[in-house]
Amino acid sequence: MVLSLEFDKLSKKFPARKGPLSLSKFEVTAVNAVSLKIKPGETFGLVGESGCGKSTLAKMLVGLLKPTSGRIIIDGEIFDKSDPKFSGGQAQRIGIARALAAEPKILVLDEPVSALDVSIQAQVLNLLEELKEKFGLTYFFISHDLSVVEAVSDRVAVMYFGSIVEVGTAKEIFSKPKHPYTKLLADSAPVIGKPLTLNEKSGYELPDILNPPIGCAFSERCVYAKELCSKEAPIFRESKNGSSVSCHYPIN
Q: What order of strands is seen across the sheet that includes strand 155-160?
């Protein structure tokens, strides 16, 4: 996605004193009524010696500093001094651009769309997919939103109480979960027209981190648990199709 950028009489002033003991206050102008238009797809250079205001201008652009006056216009949308803040989608795009500036091959995406509206989520996810194909990226995608994880992931790991309890393809994890906790997560996800099928133990709290259980950490919340589950921690078992589950009695 290529955006246009415009600065309209953008200024930034900072309060200052003439000396550490001085009571008189005045303002220092770091950026003075800058007006620039940068075309979509253009590489626009900005040069100048240290202290000329380059960094201050950049910080106003990304929302780290609030302009004293003037406007920032991104793709026709105006951000004036009463608002230099970016929308959720714009902030996420800026964050992605910052990450790509280092030319990485792996990106760790921690809740990249959790605070966005559904329509903006789709835009950001589509952008991530385009960037993945263009730059040959590998994503480690972390999210609490199961529908998003299912939509974007090739393989998925399920974590509980600090441990991975199941690994498999996205299709396997969400359509045929083998670990009871994975099934609980899938059953807890709200779907229009689908009634929730929670069990009587689903509301139990996590184990005490200061006093972890001896056996399976999920046993107190598991309707499939047997005596062995509270006495012995399960180990990972890998199936023929490459999926893995840490459970004494995995769901068939």
A: 155-160, 163-169, 244-246, 236-238
